[in-house]
Design goal:
By secondary structure, the chain is α+β, with helices and mostly antiparallel strands. The protein has one domain. Helix content is 22%, strand content 34%. The chain contains two helices and nine strands, in the order αββββαβββββ. Strands 1, 2, 3, 4, 5, 6, 7, 8 and 9 form a nine-stranded antiparallel sheet that branches. The protein starts with a helix and ends in an 11-residue tail after the last strand.
């Protein structure tokens, strides 16, 4: 009987879903005329807050990039309080919309790095690398 109970516990544990990592991640992306400022926060209950304002087709002079970054950073910070947490399926590495197929985020447990898979228009996913932070910064491109 003990073996049966132990086996049942092992089966239930194997079938249970892993808990998503609780924490905050942020980062920025710049390339090919696209700029993104991003934040992710995973709450203790597993709900996820995500914001990633972007500018596409930003074919501008190099001097204007700093202004665009500042605009995205301000939009990210000013809108963060309005971001609603939502549920995702998590398999221990990849976050997907409930019942969905496409990866929305990928977490590297060894480095605690989160990669946001951003879908802009009909383009393939744009991977935006995010670093873990203890608190968010005014400028997500700045490390600290």
């Amino acid at each position: 009987m003990r073996k049966l109970v132990l086996l049942a516990c092992v089966v239930v544990a194997a079938c249970s879903r892993p808990n998503p990592p609780v924490g905050k991640w942020e980062g920025g992306y710049e390339g090919g005329g696209t700029l993104v400022a991003a934040r992710v926060e995973i709450l203790p209950g597993g709900q996820v807050k995500i914001s990633a304002p972007d500018i596409t087709d930003a074919i501008v002079r190099r001097e204007e990039i700093a202004q665009l970054r500042a605009r995205l950073s301000a939009e990210l910070a000013n809108g963060w309080s309005e971001v609603k947490p939502r549920a995702f399926d998590f398999d221990g590495k990849t976050f997907r919309k409930p019942g969905g197929f496409a990866p929305q985020m990928v977490w590297d447990k060894d480095t605690n790095q989160m990669t946001l898979e951003l879908y802009i228009a009909a383009n393939p996913a744009l991977p935006v690398a995010l670093r873990p932070v203890s608190d968010f910064h005014d400028n997500p491109w700045v490390q600290g």
